[in-house]
Design brief:
This protein is an all-alpha fold. It folds into 3 domains: 84 residues, no CATH class; 149 residues, no CATH class; 69 residues, no CATH class. It has 14 helices and no strands. The radius of gyration is 33 Å and the shape is elongated.
Length: 306
């Protein structure tokens, strides 16, 4: 029987070349090989050549790859399940950093409430700004530099660059909100200009919007450009099993998410135009924030399904 074993092993290796090698699959191949050798020996004893006997014996086996498919899927699920279940403990720095950043944000929100009920919205936003910027940037930095079940940690230098870009964007948004809500006390030259040039009244009425947009130039625009460069140059930090799993599912869920996200932003653009005509741009820009929040919720839902 051993004289046919090498040919049988070669034939089985060719059949199962695309399957993951597991202990169960090896046992299955050994059992099949033993049965094939016995069948070949019986046919050669009746006068068949070794090559003909091997071919006929393989033909009689039927679709043995179905069993291998089932075993390979089970093994892959065990590997992926084990990777998901493996805990990734936090180091001491991250354990201390998250509660500290949350404490800073909670303190800022408390100060915001006190100032809001005592002095108004604009001073409250100004008092919240330093606490929110520091805490949110800290959350982003420590989240990026933390290892998760599916991702390797980012380097500290690159994490600091992301935090700096976010700080610039947040400073621009807070400064713009403060400029938009600042009380518009007209200067003497402004009063004179209104009297001399009545057509310039529209510019004076929109001075808050102009100031808010102007405050984005030194902060939000450089921060956005910096963030775009970081994202475009980002390396794939996903672990091998997560990358393999994402490749299998990206086609299906990616197409669906693209359709839903496109519909959300088209609706947001249409709503923005309608609200701008009805109540003005001072409030209509909120539709884009709402659209971003909806997109995050949709992304979260797709991530859970995946």
């Amino acid at each position: 029987m051993t004289e046919y074993r090498e040919s049988v092993d070669q034939a089985l290796a060719e059949i199962f070349r695309d399957y993951e090698e597991t202990a169960g699959l090896r046992d299955l191949k050994d059992e099949i090989a033993a049965n094939l050798c016995e069948s070949i020996q019986g046919m050669t004893a009746k006068g068949a050549s070794g090559e003909t006997a091997l071919r006929q014996a393989l033909d009689r086996l039927g679709d043995i790859t179905e069993v291998a498919d089932r075993m390979s899927r089970q093994k892959r699920q065990e590997i992926i399940g084990g990777a998901f279940a493996r805990p990734v403990p936090l180091d001491r720095l991250h354990i201390a950093a998250y509660p500290l950043a949350g404490l800073v944000l909670a303190f800022g929100v408390t100060i915001f409430g006190i100032v809001y009920f005592s002095a108004g919205l604009m001073p409250a936003i100004a008092s919240l700004m330093p606490f929110a910027v520091v805490s949110l940037c800290a959350f982003v930095f420590f989240a990026l530099t933390q290892e998760t079940r599916s991702r390797h940690p980012m380097t500290w230098k690159r994490g600091l660059l992301y935090a700096a870009a976010l700080a610039l964007i947040l400073c621009g948004l807070f400064t713009g909100a403060i400029a938009l809500l600042a009380p518009g006390t007209p200067a003497p030259e402004e009063i004179a200009a209104r009297a001399e040039f009545p057509d310039a009244a529209l510019a004076f009425e929109n001075i808050g919007i102009i100031s808010a947009l102007g405050s984005l130039i030194p902060f939000a625009l450089p921060g956005g450009a910096m963030l775009a460069l970081l994202v475009l140059g980002e390396k794939d930090r996903k672990k091998p099993w997560a990358r393999r799993m994402e490749e299998e599912q990206s086609q299906t869920y990616g197409a669906r998410f693209g359709l839903v996200a496109g519909a959300v932003w088209i609706f947001a653009a249409a709503l923005f135009c309608v609200l701008t005509a009805l109540v003005g741009i001072r409030y209509s820009w909120i539709t884009f924030i709402a659209a971003a929040a909806v997109q995050l919720l949709v992304m979260s839902g797709f991530a859970k399904k995946r």
